[in-house]
Amino acid sequence: MIDSQPSPNFARFLNKEFIEFKTLHELQEVACNAYSENPLYGTYNEARGQYEYMKYEDFGRKVQECRAVLKNLGVEQYDKIGIISNNSPEWAMLAAAAYSLNTTLVPLYEAQNPSDWTYILNDSSASVVFCSTRNIFDRFTKEVLPMTPQVHSTLCFDAKDDEEYGYQTVLGRIHGYTLVEQRTPPCEEDLANLIYTSGTTGLPKGVELTHSNVVSNVKGGRSMSKNPYDLLDESSRTLAFLPWAHSYGQTVELWMGMAFGASCGICRGVPFLLEDLQLVKPTVLFAVPTLYKKIYDGVQNKMKSGHYVQDTLLTNAIQIGSKNAQFQRGERVPLGYVDQIKFDLLDKIVISKIRDRFGGQLRYGCVAGAACSPKVLLFMDAIGISVLEGYGLTETSPIITLNSPGRRSIGSVGKSIPGVTVYIVDKDGNELPPGEEGEICCVGPNVMRGYHKNPEATKEVITTAPDGKSRMFHTGDMGKMDLDGWVSVTGRIKEQYKLENGKYIVPAPVENALGMSRFICQVVLVGANRPYNIALIVPEWDAIRQEFDLKDDIPDIQIVNDERVTNLIDNEILESCKSLKKFEIPKDWAFVAPFTAANNMITPKMSLRKHKIEEAYDDLISNLYGDTLAIFVAASSSSSMLLESESSSSYLIISFPLDSELFGYSSS
């Protein structure tokens, strides 16, 4: 392990005024005062082709103006304020203004259906709603407003100045308001956020997060390092592309960054991610595993391109980079003289080019939301970017455990943050000894108040801890904890099932193993009460085309009939699952259409809705367990129709996504 030297900003961190914030409102006000001249939020200026930033002091003034608008709308403390918007400075402004009046923010996703907006706004009793764009505003007023009678005011951020429902229009009508005295500062235990879980099954539940919940995460996260400025400081930049409507993105990108005086470029959207990385040049990036896996797959594809010089250079670069990373982690002696020269050369001509994909200045990545393969983490180490894996849920604000600079264990999701205690318990709630698998539970100030208007659901997940007095949250995840406190997640309790023979299957490890193939984009394991497992696979077409040197103009439907592709996936399954038990390995598979938010098969936070997927491919799944040749046309994301069948040991599956493009193949 490397001991970092205290940064020049360490004395500032020890300044009592800076660290003594107890609410998100206090955090915003103290930060805007302490870092007044620092850049805060950056947005893309299309005319200039670059990101432009507002200062902390400018943001503070905008919060004051927004607070005046809320007062003008008749907002009072404890009211609920809805916002339907992607990430933007206005999103952060409204959140801070809402907190300053001791009201509660109810964030919603632009990508959600109007029916979801209706349910959430009614369940939360939100009385004021802010919409990001005219399109969102029109959809809301047409499809949602008639069904939400408690909503008395709706404003649009990007409306024209003279439109009565425009935010700027209302702001322009306000004269002579007193900015500072309008505040109604919240207490620590007042409700800050009401975040609705997207829900892979059933209706979404409103998670009540207090100021104390979120602030404990901000302070706990920054206390994980010996030097709290190892990860973030005033010179740090992040690129925000995680949705702030979710607790992960909001806590780490909004509030943790602000606590250090860091700046944050706001990504224009996933299609622009690679371009925005080049423009913002983040030093820290909070992400989900998919991003790092894409870079890993891209390098793996290039290493197997068939071009001898390129393949050799990349392979040698990653090998020597891995040796250097082992030294940096304290796992081996320093590189020898020859190896050091080799590393310096290959880092300059090869590895730095990979780092440039992230903007060229990225020091740390942070990942949560799903398991990140140790192979990917070791690869990122080899190219000189340490990726810190963490774990948590919306209900825990969200961080429970975290790896941190100078304190990492690859393959683990880290140790509990300060103030949080992790328990591994059996089905009866009894604490298990280190190394035994059970349910991951936690106690701490990060645990939600409860589910909004749902005491029954709250009682199901919050019980008394083994100490006999503390409120303990049940995550629903299976895991282990070793003697040193390192936590590993092994699967989701509700997703485990039995095969016909009574053997238990935990899908996550199998799906994660298959997902490491560069030829597989998404995968779902199926097998409950069946004789064996099968896999529904969304292929990575670009990698498959490259593998067989196939031209881009060849339709996917022709590729799936290629026996080489069938054999490739068969071999990938066997290779990926070498470390698994025989009964866990899928014996059959099928190519299917991508799982997307548009076909309702993933949630806004990218979790798979497995019940929806299994419903959509019910006939396909049934035939995968039979001995028939079956051709299907998926008429929609939730129905399919058997067109033809005959006896055979293999079968062709043709599925039509919602845009009616042919997609899919399966093989025994």
TrEMBL record:
A GO CC term attached to the entry: membrane
Matches recorded under Pfam families: AMP-binding, AMP-binding_C_3
Keywords: ATP-binding, Nucleotide-binding
Protein's UniProt keywords contain ATP-binding: yes
Any one GO MF annotation of this record: ATP binding
SUPFAM superfamilies in the record: Acetyl-CoA synthetase-like
Annotated AMP-dependent synthetase/ligase domain residues: 49-452
Cited InterPro entries: AMP-binding_CS (IPR020845), AMP-dep_synth/lig_dom (IPR000873), ANL_N_sf (IPR042099)
Protein name, as recorded: Long chain acyl-CoA synthetase
Taxonomic lineage from the root: Eukaryota, Sar, Stramenopiles, Ochrophyta, Bacillariophyta
